[in-house]
Design a protein that fits this description.
The protein is α/β, with parallel strands linked by helices and about 240 residues long. It contains 11 helices and 9 strands.
Length: about 240
């Protein structure tokens, strides 16, 4: 419904050629604001890439990922499950201390397409409060589980003052595949400005140890190809921490 109203207003603006200037200007600003807060990649003319890790912190896998990032001297971005961050604040503190960026990945990891807008707001606010309690700051980085958001939730991103960060290269490491397959998947869609989706946490039955191991191949190869590793806020020029 919100999307239909927006399209109708933009159509009226076009037909009346500015006869409704205040309304047209407000609608254009609104659509630009919403559009600019749903992001998938950075500048495709700069050879930069951002590695991102979802569903942690997880004491089984997060320390190994952090060790690898430190070993290779690069920074990444971690999208945190609020409930897990609450249980393992020491891992969140280590991420921040080692120069990585952190973002919101909801509190319980629901499929937001099946949830109300009120639940969407709650998931963000609850996780934001936990991150602030641990780190002392808030973040504007938000990744919806499965990359899913309703149109109404997208329209609410400016009100939450967060950016929805999806991805342009999916490692598919959550399938618990071998290192070689993870590497192949990352490079399949690699290009300048790529945001890479990986995981440092998951269900207790999952074995994601190959994610950390794959970095020994992925990082040196990307460096050899001239890529620079940056955090999501650096790639997308998002103020971090939240102002």
């Amino acid at each position: 419904m919100i999307r239909r109203i927006s399209i109708l207003l933009l159509t009226l603006c076009f037909l009346f050629n500015g006869a409704l200037p205040a309304l047209c200007k407000a609608e254009q600003v609104k659509n630009i604001a919403v559009r600019d807060r749903l992001l998938y990649q950075g500048n495709n003319h700069l050879k930069q890439t951002a590695l991102t890790f979802d569903d942690g912190p997880d004491p089984r896998f997060t320390p190994h990922v952090l060790d690898q990032l430190k070993k290779h001297g690069i920074k990444a971005t971690f999208f945190l499950i609020g409930a897990k961050a609450h249980e393992h604040p020491e891992l969140v503190k280590r991420m921040v201390a080692e120069g990585h960026a952190v973002g919101i990945h909801t509190y319980w990891h629901p499929n937001l397409l099946k949830e109300s807008t009120e639940k969407f707001h709650w998931e963000i606010a609850k996780t934001q409060a936990i991150i602030k309690n641990i780190t002392g700051f808030e973040t504007q980085l938000f990744r919806p589980p499965y990359g899913n958001l309703t149109q109404e939730m997208i329209s609410e991103l400016p009100n939450e003052n967060v950016y929805a960060i999806n991805w342009s290269s999916d490692s598919l490491d959550w399938k618990q595949i071998p290192e070689a397959e993870i590497t192949k998947n990352v490079f399949k869609n690699m290009h300048a400005g790529t945001i890479v989706l990986m995981h440092d946490g998951g269900h207790w039955t999952m074995d994601l140890s190959n994610t950390a191991k794959s970095l020994d191949t992925i990082v040196p190869r990307l460096k050899q190809e001239g890529y620079h590793f940056v955090t999501v806020p650096e790639l997308l020029h998002i103020p971090y921490p939240k102002n």
